[in-house]
Amino acid sequence: MQRTTAKESLLAPPPILPPPVKRPKAKKTKKAVVFFEVEILDAKTKDKLCFLDKVRLLSSVHPQWYPARQSIRLDPKGKSLKDEDVLQHLPVGTTATFYFRDLGAQISWVTVFLTEYAGPLLLYLMFYFRVPFIYAPKYDFTTSKHWVVHLACMCHSFHYLKRLLETLFVHRFSHGTMPLRNIFKNCTYYWGFAAWMAYYINHPLYTPPTIYGEQQVRMALVLFLFCQIGNFSIHIALRNLRPPGSKTRKIPYPTKNPFTWIFLLVSCPNYTYELGSWLGFTLMTQCLPVAFFTAVGFIQMTVWAKGKHRSYLKEFRDYPPLRSPILPFIL
Ligand SMILES: NC(=O)c1ccc[n+]([C@@H]2O[C@H](COP(=O)([O-])OP(=O)(O)OC[C@H]3O[C@@H](n4cnc5c(N)ncnc54)[C@H](OP(=O)(O)O)[C@@H]3O)[C@@H](O)[C@H]2O)c1
Asked: Which residues form the domain of 301?
């Protein structure tokens, strides 16, 4: 039996509603045919948007609200139904009322990530090559005399190139789109911080780490590279949890790759490694805006990791109890 999803085919169950075909004599177990009547109200104003007594798509009544921008809820303030939800399995009678919210214009996740990550990559390089109108004209297209500045540029570019390639070839996202307005917020965050960090690191008056000197830079590079490999390993492990084209979510477990063994203690080790990478970059450059970016990223990732950790606990009864959201035994 085909399934009728809550959103895409708007809560109407065409596959289970064929007009009864008369097949004389053939004795078959009778299937109860259920007819649904569905009314959709605006979640804010409670105005009736449409009433469906037949199989129809909401987007055929209101073409401006294509399925990706629809949020359909059972309760005006409740959670959105999932695309996979089936009307027959929802706690509604044969007359159901649903609430609709417009999620706004949507944009694909891949476009979002590519825009978010290509910006910092290119912006940083503009500062590194000291293109005109950034520093005093006498410094146009000059290069820094400090080797750590060149190393930092390599690390920064490597990080964002890796993220771009992972977005294209590794991640298997479950959501196709996100609201267009988010891209402005996210780009301001990533582009703004990249420009701020790059300005100081590539500044002609920049001074390399002085506390422990070269040894500090070497240690920082080791930490950075270690965490980049770790982060990539986790992304591969997450990818392998989800067969192509599916939205399956499973409990991630350590694999043969030692970088994934941290799954024993942490729910979102990709964020743990991401934090480690930026700590490494902070140590390497000893630059305040980098430390600030690391701190803000850490706060954001902690919020997300806690949410994901809670979802795992809710979804999987046998979820390993030893795990913390982002930092083993701490947070
Ligand atoms: N520096 C910063 O401020 C910062 C902030 C955030 C992220 N990042 C970086 O960006 C990377 C990606 O971030 P993200 O928030 O998208 O990471 P994420 O939520 O952990 O997701 C990574 C990928 O794995 C999938 N996935 C996650 N858990 C899964 C599970 N249990 N079963 C199957 N698939 C699963 C996700 O699919 P879904 O589409 O279903 O989620 C997504 O495709 C991070 O690892 C980090 O390196 C950096």
From this structure: 210-331
Q: Is the entire prediction scored with pTM above 0.85?
A: no
- Number of domains into which the chain is organized: 2
| Average predicted confidence (pLDDT) for the chain | 84
DSSP codes of every residue in 179-217:
EHHHHHHHHHHHHHHHHHHHHHHT-TT-----SSHHHHH
Which residue, 176, 208, 240, sits at the end of a domain?
208
Residue closest via CA to ligand 1's atom 39 equals 173
Helix (H, G, I), strand (E, B) or coil at 133: coil
In this structure, the answer to whether residues 157 and 248 fall within a common structural domain is no
| 246 and 233 part of one domain | yes
Nearest CA to ligand 1 atom 23: 171
Any domain includes 263: yes
- Ligand 1 atom at shortest distance from the alpha carbon of 252: 31
d(C-alpha 295, C-alpha 179), whole Å? 26
pLDDT bucket at 279, cuts 50 / 70 / 90: very high
**Residues framing ligand 1 (Cβ under 6 A):** 171-175, 231, 238, 241-242, 249-250, 252, 268, 270-271, 274, 297, 300-301, 304
Residues 230 and 317 in one domain: yes
pLDDT attached to residue 26: 44
C-alpha to C-alpha distance for 36 and 277, rounded to whole angstroms = 53
Residue at which a domain ends, from 143, 176, 208: 208
Please give the pLDDT value at position 83.
73
